């Protein structure tokens, strides 16, 4: 195999296909794997015989109970001159009860109103026993809670009366995040197709470098 031919076969289009395809696979492979795992329902989370929640799990179903939100998230655009646009809310972090403690739920902004309504119904249930009637369906994955949100999570549990040692005994804080697994699968396939096309163009370019185009050269013409 000739090294020079390899480098010449790696043309700009080939490199772009490899880079884009590789980036897409890097971003989607994890969720692609999660999408094929058996889904845990919110009823399962409340089952004392369940194995408990872990990062990397697939979650799907109607949320049963919500204990309000302990943090909110906002986004903004940073301009080239260093200034930034006004902050825009992008969702809240809610607290959900489980058989082993609590887990976070990262909502989209469009889901805030219905989750706030379910929160009110949950507190009504805790005082009167009347089951919530609002239905909120979500499918996503479980991740470890990171950043400043962890502090807000712990402070919220302290307001419930938990001690620092009790909160630590609950383990690493986890959060459920919405994922469109259908979109993930489509993007994953696109990433694979980009890589396949890149390999095809590379092989064709490499063969041309080694074998030539098959067309007569100028010096061979009569």
Spell out the key features of this protein.
222 residues, alpha/beta, 7-stranded mixed beta sheet, 7 helices
Mind explaining what this structure looks like?
With 222 residues, the chain is α/β, with parallel strands linked by helices. The chain has seven helices and seven strands. Strands 1-2-6-7-5-4-3 form a seven-stranded mixed β-sheet. Strand 1, helix 3 and strand 2 form a beta-alpha-beta unit. It is elongated. The C terminus is likely disordered.
Tally of helical segments: 7
What about the largest sheet?
Answer: 7 strands, mixed
Unreliable spans? 213-221
Terminal CA distance: 33 Å
Shape: elongated
Structural class: alpha/beta
Radius of gyration: 26 Å
Q: Estimate percent helicity.
A: 40-55%
Instruction: State the strand order across the main sheet.
Output: 1-2-6-7-5-4-3
The proportion of residues in beta strands is: 15-25%
- E-strand count: 7
Order of SSEs, N→C?
HHEHEEEEHEHHEH
Multimer state: single chain
Summed over residues and divided by their number, the pLDDT gives a mean of: 87
């Amino acid at each position: 195999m000739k090294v020079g031919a390899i480098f010449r076969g790696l043309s700009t289009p080939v490199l772009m296909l490899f880079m884009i395809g590789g980036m897409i696979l890097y971003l989607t492979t994890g969720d692609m794997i999660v999408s094929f795992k058996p889904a845990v329902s919110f009823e399962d989370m409340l089952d004392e015989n369940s194995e408990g929640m872990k990062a990397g799990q697939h979650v799907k179903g109607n949320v049963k109970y919500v204990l309000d939100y302990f943090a909110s998230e906002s986004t903004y655009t940073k301009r080239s001159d260093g200034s930034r646009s006004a902050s825009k809310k992008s969702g809240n972090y809610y607290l959900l009860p489980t058989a082993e403690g609590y887990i976070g739920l990262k909502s989209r902004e469009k889901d805030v109103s219905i989750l706030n309504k379910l929160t009110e119904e949950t507190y009504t249930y805790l005082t009167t026993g009347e089951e919530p009637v609002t239905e909120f369906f979500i499918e996503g994955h479980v991740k470890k809670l990171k950043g400043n949100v962890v502090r807000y999570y712990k402070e919220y549990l302290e307001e419930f009366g938990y001690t620092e040692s009790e909160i630590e005994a609950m383990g690493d804080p986890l959060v459920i995040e919405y994922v469109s697994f259908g979109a993930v699968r489509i993007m994953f396939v696109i990433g694979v197709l980009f890589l396949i096309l890149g390999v095809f163009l590379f092989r064709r370019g490499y063969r041309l470098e080694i074998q030539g185009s098959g067309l007569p050269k100028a010096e061979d013409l009569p």
